[in-house]
Design goal:
Metallo-beta-lactamase, Chain A; single chain; globular; alpha+beta; about 120 residues; five-stranded mixed sheet
Length: about 120
């Protein structure tokens, strides 16, 4: 854990104050809220259907070694729920996947890439 603290800082921060709770299916202008609990119980992704783009935030990490993976358990509150969330977003129609903490956005065939990763991810459970 000390390595994580050195790299990312302390993880014991105060909860954020929510001004307006969002629910699955809500819209923020042209973005659709998709509830994707994984990183945290309240994690969400944003889906921009018109541009076939999913802003996945921390739902997955795109690593050079393994491709798409569920972030490690010290960053993901419930890995089983994370796998369910990944399977859920794979049913959306998107080509682009933008994730947090990545240097390589997936700018084409993202849905197919996620579908291939699902089998590998689910085999861990």
């Amino acid at each position: 854990m000390e390595d994580v603290i050195k790299k990312f800082g302390r993880l014991d921060v105060e909860p954020m104050q929510v001004d307006h709770p969002l629910n699955d299916g809500d819209r923020i202008k042209s973005l659709k809220v998709v509830h994707t609990p994984s990183h945290t119980p309240g994690h969400m992704s944003l889906y921009y259907e018109e541009e076939r783009t999913l802003f996945g935030a921390d739902i997955l990490w795109n690593t050079e070694e393994s491709g798409l993976v569920i972030p490690p358990s010290y960053f993901t509150s419930d890995t089983v729920t994370a796998a369910v969330s990944i399977e859920r977003v794979s049913k959306l129609h998107f080509d682009n996947l933008l994730l947090a903490h990545q240097t390589r956005p997936i700018l084409e065939n993202a849905k197919e890439i996620i579908e291939k990763a699902i089998g590998r991810i689910l085999s861990r459970f």
